[in-house]
Amino acid sequence: MLKVNNLKVNYGMIEAIKDVSFEINQGEIIALIGANGAGKTTIMHAISGLIKPVSGSIMLNGQDITKIQAHEIVRKHLIQVPERRRVFASQSVEENLQLGAFTRKDKVEIAKDMEMVYARFPRLKERYKQLAGTLSGGEQQMLAMGRALMSKPEILILDEPSMGLAPLLVAEIFSIIKDINKSGTTVLLVEQNAKMALKIADRAYVLETGNIVVTGTGEELINSDEIKKAYLGG
Amino acid sequence: MKKFKLKKIDNKKKTFLYIFMIVVIYAIVMALTSAGIINRYYNGILITVCINLILVVSLNLTTGYLGQLTLGHAGFMAIGAYAAAYFSKTFMTIPQPFSFIIALLIGGVMAMIAGLIIGVPALRLKGDYLAIITLGFGEVIKTILLSMAIIGGAKGYIGIPRVTTFTSAYVFVIITIVFVCLLIKSRHGRAIISISEDEIASEASGINIVKYKIMAFAFAAFFAGIAGGIYAHYMGIIEPKTFGFNKSIEILVMVVLGGMGSINGAVIATIAITILPEMLRSLSQYRTLMYAVTLIGVMLYKYDPRVQVLMCKAKMFCAKINPFKRKEAK
Ligand SMILES: Nc1ncnc2c1ncn2[C@@H]1O[C@H](COP(=O)(O)OP(=O)(O)OP(=O)(O)O)[C@@H](O)[C@H]1O
Ligand SMILES: [Mg+2]
Fold it and tell me: What would the CATH number be for the domain defined by A1-77+154-234?
């Protein structure tokens, strides 16, 4: 469904991504794990069209999207939940969700999806009038995910959804991600919390300073000694 | 469903209140004028207030709502002023008020074209290039006008028909404010505000940020051009030096003081800053100094919690009396 071939991304002189290839099939949950600065966010941004790679291609359903602008990629139902949530702080929860549906015109369907998001995140429903900036970190993560769902994603890419959340909430967020996947959305998940990510992932890739070094099924990686040492704390 | 209806009536009431206010203010000014209490001098101040209101409300679109700092708003005003004046002087035979209206529109459109010419390349770049580019633009326009003899050069462009009245200026203020309010309330306006909050999140939500930046910038230039035309037809003579950096900063100060992205605040700040120096004539030589101090003060104390509480209260108050407010409970 999504195929990244020999991706290379620079920030000025810095080579952030050297040569990365990976692939996501329909219906999968793929985890991309790696330490700070490995280049995970950079890959996410390249896929979403937020930065242009130096070389390589990103194929979505057979079409090269490397040259397509970010807001056009959203219309292809490839949606990103960015790192650190990035909710629209001075707008209400409901307005944030409406902005998620910015590319859509079908009012009836939007209203239905709004109900669907509220059903998935009851806490957002309770606070629909509250300004997004005043939500707790966990609630903001839910809002960012809800906003992405409003764009009707076929592929949802999540950049560190567990960042800064208490363990209980992390578990909740991950079970929601699994639910979203079960209802037919393909998921690409970037995480530092490797244990949680590998648990729900069908397959995973490990990224180290701009290169993919290990790949395998979630189960394989979680049991590999190398990974245990480096990312799972022994 | 019921709640939704209630909200509508509520908004209607407020809109009605605003229309009522617009009419009452106009009626009072007219009555005072015919009673002779508003003389030529006061009339001039009122027209200046109107011109500044158009400038400030339009700059508020780019700097307040879109969050892009621009330092050359007076440059667009200059283009509008000269283009409108040139039209009026060339086609003296067209009857009023048509000639005046066409002149203003031409001024607005020319300013908008200039806005597109500098906005399209500047706004495509990521980063804060706009401030520098608009700063340069304002000065370049001034220099070009100084060197053009057919429109008077440094001596000024004279003999422009003095057809601006309080009524015409007032009408254009209302048009500007209503346009900006409706734009901000619309889906496009939401996009513009979202861009100011977070560009990456906006793009990730499918908002074409370059398009909306250019749109807001071009509209702001259009209204600055209109304001320039009104100014030219009020003064009868225009000089390039009027439209320099100082004028741009003056407009910016009013936007900043008005609490960026608030129409009510901008209106109050404009009226205060335009009228105060007139009343304190002896202080007028310190005008620019006062602007500088004000701007520095705002920057320094913007993040002071006490000031923020105050601003919050002021915003809440403004929101209460605003018929176009965005954040309406549903
Ligand atoms: N805008 C930028 N300009 C210059 N260098 C950048 C920029 N953004 C990221 N980098 C560099 O690129 C490399 C990869 O960064 P990236 O944000 O993709 O890492 P990451 O894997 O997402 O890390 P983290 O887990 O901390 O979020 C880092 O060395 C970083 O310093
Ligand atoms: Mg990152």
Answer: 3.40.50.300
